């Protein structure tokens, strides 16, 4: 009977590969030794526990939790073997852990991470909304930088005024373009009538030449005004707008900073038990994060305001000089000075015959 039992135990230790054939795995020797150790211990206990010892031997073979999952089939690489549990003996401990996560664990981790993000966003939104309403109704204080806020207000007022200049300059461009087109058509009509009316040939001819000259000077002035409009548009809708976007981020950071500051102040006035102290420590950390963000954006706003002011003065000095010289030369009838103004500012005119207005003129 002993040989029969040992034969059954040994049979249970034989692993089966994916093709149904027997194979040899590293765990075989360990399993066989563990079975023999268990049988030897059972023999020493006594015949009174023979039935239970027999049952232990019968179930001592490998089960599903004591096998290994082999990826890649028979003869795969060593790193493809993922141990799922450990085989324990009386004097031997064999343990291993999985080095990779299952898809369920990965998806569960992503879900938990998203949940934490949404929870944090919701808490932050609640605090900021509470702070904003409290400030509006005068129940909460806000951090004020009088000098910086005055500079921001000046910038917003300047932007509104420059937007008005841009609107009027575009209107002038459109009207002047229509006038130049009318002068061009009128000159062509005078030239045609000069050919068909011999008795008024000279008179029509003089007017045709005058209109053509005005049309040429008008196109030159139009090029200067278009350049002026383009530069003002860049200054207002790109340079100033970029600074205002940074200011909006700064104002949002200021609101968050005050919200977490108020939260910390409320917790500091409450009880001082262990739970409350832990919450105060967390609030202190969040407050420091928001403070660093607020100070960083404040520094960015100050720097951008400084560079914007320098850039604005430089750009407007050039553009206002261009606008003045071009308008003065045109209405004085000084064609040479008008052309010299465009050369001075490196302005290229549209090719002759390009009657369609540019995209700036169509704004």
Describe what is shown at a glance.
The chain has 363 residues and is mainly alpha-helical.
Describe the structure.
This protein has 363 residues and is mainly alpha-helical. It has 8 helices and 4 strands. It has helices spanning 2-12, 27-45, 50-59, 103-136, 146-196, 201-268, 274-331, 335-344, and strands at 68-70, 81-83, 87-88, 93-94. The strands form 2 sheets. The chain has a two-stranded antiparallel sheet with strand order 1-2. A two-stranded antiparallel sheet has the order 3-4. Helix 1 runs parallel beside helix 3, helix 6 runs parallel beside helix 8 and helix 7 runs antiparallel to helix 8. The protein starts with a helix and ends in a 19-residue tail after the last helix.
What is the element string, with H for helices and E for strands? HHHEEEEHHHHH
Count the DSSP helices: 8
Distance between the termini: 103 Å
Helix content: over 70%
Q: Which runs of at least 5 residues are low in confidence (pLDDT < 50)? A: 1-32, 41-99, 359-363
- Give the overall shape: elongated
The largest β sheet comes out as: 2 strands, antiparallel
Output the radius of gyration: 44 Å
Mean pLDDT: 76
Strand content: under 5%
Strand order of the largest sheet: 1-2
Oligomeric form of this entry? single chain
- Structural class designation: mainly alpha
Number of strands: 4
């Amino acid at each position: 009977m002993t040989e029969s039992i040992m034969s059954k135990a040994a049979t249970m230790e034989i692993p089966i590969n994916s093709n149904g054939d027997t194979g040899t795995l590293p765990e075989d020797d360990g399993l066989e030794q563990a079975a023999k150790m268990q049988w030897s211990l059972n023999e020493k206990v006594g015949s009174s526990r023979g039935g239970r010892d027999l049952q232990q031997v019968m179930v001592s073979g490998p089960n599903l939790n004591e096998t290994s999952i082999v990826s890649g089939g028979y003869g795969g690489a060593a790193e493809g073997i993922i141990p799922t549990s450990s085989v324990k003996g009386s004097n031997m401990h064999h343990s291993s852990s999985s080095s990779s996560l299952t898809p369920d664990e990965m998806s569960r981790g992503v879900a938990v991470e998203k949940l934490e993000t949404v929870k944090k966003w919701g808490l932050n939104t609640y605090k900021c909304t509470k702070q904003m309403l409290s400030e509006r109704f005068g129940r909460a204080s806000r951090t004020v930088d009088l000098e910086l806020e005055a500079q921001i207000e000046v910038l917003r007022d300047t932007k509104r005024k420059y937007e008005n200049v841009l609107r009027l300059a575009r209107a002038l461009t459109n009207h002047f373009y229509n006038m130049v087109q009318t002068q061009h058509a009128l000159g062509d009509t005078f030239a045609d009538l000069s050919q068909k009316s011999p008795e008024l040939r000279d008179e029509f001819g003089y007017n045709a030449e005058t209109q053509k000259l005005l049309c040429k000077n008008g196109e030159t002035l139009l090029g200067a005004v278009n350049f002026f409009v383009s530069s003002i548009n860049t200054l207002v809708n790109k340079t100033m707008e970029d600074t205002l976007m940074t200011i909006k981020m700064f104002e949002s950071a200021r609101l968050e900073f005050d919200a977490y500051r108020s939260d910390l102040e409320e917790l500091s006035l409450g009880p001082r038990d262990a739970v409350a102290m832990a919450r105060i420590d967390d609030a202190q950390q969040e407050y420091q994060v928001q403070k660093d963000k607020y100070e960083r954006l404040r520094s960015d706003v100050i720097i951008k305001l400084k560079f914007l002011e320098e850039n604005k003065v430089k750009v407007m000095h050039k553009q206002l000089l261009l606008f003045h010289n071009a308008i003065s030369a045109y209405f004085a009838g000084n064609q040479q000075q008008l052309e010299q103004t465009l050369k001075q500012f490196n302005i290229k005119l549209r090719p002759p015959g390009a009657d369609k207005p540019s995209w700036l003129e169509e704004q």
